[in-house]
Amino acid sequence: MPYFEFKGRNSEGALQQGAMESASAAALADTLAQSGITPIRIDAARAPGENALAQLARLRDHGRVGHIDILLFSRQMHTLLKAGVPIMRALAGLQESCTNRAFAEVIRDLRESLDSGRELSQAMARQPKAFSPFYISMIRVGETTGQLEEIFLSLFHHLDFQQFMRNQVKSALRYPGFVVAVMALALVIINIFVIPQFAKVFKGLKTELPFMTKLIVASSDFFVAWWPVMLLLAVGAVVGFRLMVASKQGRYAWDRFKLRIPIAGGIVSKATLARFARSLALGLKSGVPAVQALSLTAQVVENDFIGKKIEDMRLGVERGESILRTAIAAKIFTPVVLQMVMVGEESGALDDMMEEVAEMYQREVEYELKNLSAQIEPILIVFLGVIVLILALGVFLPMWDLGKAMIK
User: How does pLDDT run across 318-330, given as a tens digit for each residue?
Assistant: First the structure.
């Protein structure tokens, strides 16, 4: 169990500080509060006798709870609860078998919270980095309806679907991204190492060079003279992009731009809407009100632009408008999807229609991924051909002129 250093004040206002072992900082804060100390600061610290390597390993694993951990946790909890295993014993078994120490600490905190009288959803709410608001709300529904094991199974399928769509989008962008990166690297190598060797020969000809040759020689000279500055600019651009995406406005702008990228933007959009439809279907099927389901779904679509559209839909439903009307105003759904939403509202089976929408988007994403290479390859071939043509003309035209001069 990790150690933490703390500073706080007792009931008389006197400063108290020390180090204690606890499952998490939140659990230590509760312990201090129960002992009459109001915590001011809590920091991770080295345990007594812990060497530097052990501390480094602990810090590396601290707080790293991945999507796969929650996915497997949901499936295992469903299996154990369905088999009649008490929830405390199920959590204890999962904690002992967990290979991720960070997630083992999360499960330990869940056990301690349940032991102190909290409900499971309240215990999960103390771990916001591990469990999303959507996940916690579904668990709360399961506790209320007495179908916690079924909710865990639904969450497993939901998380598995999200992981599948995320992997599909990554695979869609991996091939063109790799090709563009390799082409950019090849251009840098040619400009810095290859063209300068030809430039020495061309300058020895002491004759007027063709325009293409002048162009590639000037480009090479620029790369050779300014490559440190260009490298710094590239690093600065990467850092600036990360800082921009970390801000709320920057993330919104980037998520909106992603949807407008030719070819790949359509795939990203459909994958995001598939996650929205599946999340909304799960919320409605579990008994969550439509307003709350839309609010929770906006937080799990992993795209701030579409999340804002969904939040606008929620506001419209709160004003008394139908989901169909708010979906039309959002302008992110196709006419076919809008028709399915209309049928779902009129028949009272909106959750089933949302599942159909999710499956439809999933099929479209899979189809477009299969044809992605066929759409991108012609563009890349034309681009590569233009580069090769410029290099060939720039290198061989002076040699051609020299050959004609020698023949004359």
Answer: 998 989 999 999 8
